[in-house]
Amino acid sequence: MDEERAWIRRAMAGDREAFAHLVEAYQTPVYNLAYRMLGDPAEAEDAAQETFLRAYTRLNTYRPERKFSSWLLAIASHYCIDRLRRRRLQWPSLDEVTPCLASGDDQPEEAAIKQERRDEVQALLDELPAPYRATVILRYWYDLSYREIAEAMGITEGAVKSRLHRARRMLAQQLMASPSEESALGAPRGAACCALGEGGEGR
User: Fold this and answer.
1) Which CA distances in Å does 167 have to 48, 197, 202?
2) Domain end: 38, 61, 86, which one?
3) Per-residue pLDDT of the chain (203 residues; tens, 9 = 90+)
4) Residue 93: inside a domain
5) Which residues make beta-bridge pairs with 182?
6) Domain assignment present for 126
7) In which domain, by residue range, is 65 found?
8) What is the pTM of this model?
9) Whether residues 135 and 76 fall in one domain
């Protein structure tokens, strides 16, 4: 941590080598966030590069009392949201982001059931506004706390909770508007909400 602070101070003073160390330290989490939001490796790579470019040109706006990782994630999140607003993109396969729903040991019937649930959740996510999508992903796929999401997105913890509440309500409305067919699990289609961790209001 002390070494990171030294890199940050040097980078803010114009030391490009110090900033290169920061890029190396954070390129993986920044890329992973972009990939989960944009769903395409090439798009995610471009987004990561743009994130670090913007970070370098805005170093004078960074406040040392804030976690550098949260500051970077904020830049990445806003950039990805802007891209999602400009055009509708396919979300990543939930095989990549919900390992709890994907297992190589599944029997064919179980695998088909889980794939159906992943497809259902992905279709629901596609209907959420970009800022709500980002908040849901950070919460339920990255397991970030309300405070961490607030820092990453540049909003208050109250706004985070409000977005999650509204997102869950939107998802519920979508499910109610869908045919009330029983899934292969013998449960209503609304069971897909379980994959979003509905009800978890701890931190």
Assistant:
1) 26, 12, 17
2) 86
3) 688 999 999 999 999 999 999 999 999 989 988 887 887 889 999 999 999 999 999 999 998 888 898 889 889 988 988 888 775 544 444 444 444 444 455 577 777 776 777 667 667 777 888 889 888 878 887 677 898 888 888 889 999 999 999 998 888 887 777 654 443 333 334 444 444 544 445 66
4) no
5) 188
6) yes
7) 2-86
8) 0.60
9) no
